[in-house]
């Protein structure tokens, strides 16, 4: 499904009711894996001490309205979807609610060619992938598993490398 995360008059909000209805109907037809694509992340990725020049870093995604974001993410979790997004000019793959038992992934691949949001002095995780031009592939295997692999190369146009791989059941 492709969603508009910036409807007129409701920036940084997702069509939760429509998405839940569409995912429910698709699941009833036998859909095994769901992929949702939107512009803004549900969970802002805080990659350094500052983000977009603000201290402390402020949300730039659907988490501008936490209650609305939570409604959206609950739908993603309920239907076992994977959410692909951009907006932040950076790469990150995370399970935002894993600490509370959540299994859904947010795949942030906003570093396809724009200048990076992270500067060379920002704090990054190891191995550092914040400043890589990135893209992701999705393979649905005969076994029913889904393999998402993110690839990228650094700002010096070094060799392409695997940034992260996850397998969904």
Describe the structure.
This protein has 169 residues and is an alpha/beta fold. It has one domain (16-168). It is built from two helices and seven strands, in the order αβαββββββ. The protein has helices at 16-28, 66-78; strands spanning 34-37, 81-85, 91-94, 105-109, 132-140, 146-154, 161-168. The chain has a four-stranded mixed β-sheet, with helices on one face. A three-stranded antiparallel β-sheet has the order 5-6-7, with no helix packed on it. β1, α2 (66-78) and β2 (81-85) form a beta-alpha-beta unit. The model has no long low-confidence stretch (mean pLDDT 89).
Helical content stands at 10-25%
Main beta sheet: 4 strands, mixed
**Secondary-structure-derived class:** alpha/beta
Going across the biggest sheet, name each strand in turn.
Answer: 1-2-4-3
Q: Give the overall silhouette.
A: globular
Give start-end ranges of low-pLDDT stretches. none
Domain tally: 1
How many extended strands?
Answer: 7
Separation, N- and C-terminal Cα atoms = 20 Å
Give average pLDDT, whole number.
89
Element-level helix/strand string: HEHEEEEEE
Range of strand content: 25-35%
């Amino acid at each position: 499904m492709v969603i508009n995360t910036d409807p007129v008059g409701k920036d940084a909000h997702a069509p939760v009711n429509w998405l839940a209805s569409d995912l429910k109907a698709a699941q009833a037809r036998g859909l095994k894996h769901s992929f949702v694509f939107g512009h803004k992340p549900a969970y802002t990725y805080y990659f350094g001490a500052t983000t977009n020049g603000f201290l402390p870093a402020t949300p730039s995604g659907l988490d501008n309205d936490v209650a609305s974001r939570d409604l959206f993410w609950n739908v993603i979790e309920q239907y076992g979807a994977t959410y692909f997004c951009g907006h932040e000019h950076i790469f990150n793959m995370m399970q935002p609610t894993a600490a509370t038992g959540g299994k859904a992934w947010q795949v942030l691949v906003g570093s396809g060619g724009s200048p990076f949001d992270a500067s060379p002095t920002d704090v990054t995780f190891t191995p550092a992938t914040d400043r890589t031009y990135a893209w992701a592939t999705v393979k649905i295997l005969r076994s029913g598993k889904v393999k998402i692999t993110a690839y990228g190369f650094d700002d010096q146009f070094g060799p392409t490398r695997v940034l992260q791989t996850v397998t969904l059941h």
